[in-house]
Amino acid sequence: MTLLMTNGNVLHLLKNFTDNIHGCMLSRYTGVCLYMESVSTQKKTSLGREDWLKAAMSVLFESGIDSISIVQLAESLKVTRGSFYHHFTDREDLLDAILEYWEQIWTVNIRESISLQNLAPVDALIALVTTIRSNKAAEFDAPFRAWALHDPHSRKVLERIDEFRLDYIRSLFEAGGFEGIDAENRARLLLYYEISDPAFFARQHPESESALIDERLKLLLQKND
C-alpha cells in the first residue's frame, strides 16, 4: 500500500488549520467561519433580509420547520409584521430563501473558499473536513434533512446539494490519482461519515477527534498497489 500524502502528518496539519477565535472555530486555510451571529447581538437600526433568515433558521434548528411563524419571528425580533413583507412575499417565500441561504453558506461558499486557495488535493481534503467540523456543518444539516423527509421541494434541494458536494469531493480524489468507481467510493465514504458522525457519536475531545480524522483520511488516501 502507498500513502498519497504531502510532507508531514495529517494530524499535524489539522492542528495548524484551526484556531478558536471568539468561540468560533476558524479555518486558517479557508478563512471560513460560518456560525450565524445572533440577530439580538447586532447593533442595527433596521432589519435586513438576512436578519429574518437567521432568525428563521434559529427557529428551524431549535424546533423544526413547523414552528417557523411570521408572527412569532416578528415578536422575537421586536418589529411589526410589515417589516417581514419588505423582504418576503409570504411564508413560502421565506422557506425557499432559507433553503437557498443554507445551500450558499454551508455548501457553495465552503467549496469556493477552498478552491480559491489552489491547494494540492490532499490539503484540499484536509481543509474541507476541517471546515465541515469547525463550522458544525453536519449539525446544521440535520433539521434540513428532517424537513426533506416530508416536503418534496426541500427534498429536491437536498438531493441537489448532496450531489454538488459529492461531485466536489470526487473531483479531489480524482485529482489525487484515484479513478472511476474507486474515486466514487472514497468520496461517498467521506461524505457519509461527515454527515452522519455527529448524529451517531458523542462529541470527542478535540485531540481525539483530530486523531480519528487523521486515521480516516490515511485510510481513504491509501492507493492500492
Could you name the key traits of this structure?
two-stranded antiparallel sheet, Tetracycline Repressor, domain 2, mainly alpha, about 220 residues, 10 helices
Number of helices: 10
CATH T-level fold name: Tetracycline Repressor, domain 2
Q: Count of DSSP E strands?
A: 4
The 3D shape can be described as elongated
Described by strand count, sense and barrel closure, the largest sheet is: 2 strands, antiparallel
How would you write the strand order of the largest sheet?
A: 1-4
Q: Provide the gyration radius in Å.
A: 19 Å
Structural class given helices, strands, pairing? mainly alpha
Strand content: 5-15%
Concise overview:
The protein is mainly α and 225 residues long.
Q: Could you walk me through the main structural features you see in this protein, from its secondary elements to its overall organization?
A:
With 225 residues, the chain is mainly alpha-helical. It has a single domain (2-223), classed as Tetracycline Repressor, domain 2. Helices cover 65% and strands 5% of the residues. It is built from ten helices and four strands. It has helices at residues 10-17, 49-63, 70-77, 81-84, 91-115, 121-134, 137-148, 152-175, 180-200, 206-220, and strands spanning 2-3, 18-21, 24-27, 222-223. A two-stranded antiparallel sheet has the order 1-4. A two-stranded antiparallel ribbon has the order 2-3. Strand 2 and strand 3 (24-27) form a beta hairpin. Helix 6 (121-134) runs antiparallel to helix 8, helix 7 packs across helix 8 (152-175) and helix 8 packs across helix 9 (180-200). The longest helix is centred in the middle third of the chain and has 25 residues, at 91-115. The chain is elongated and about 65 Å long. Mean pLDDT is 82; it is low at 1-43.
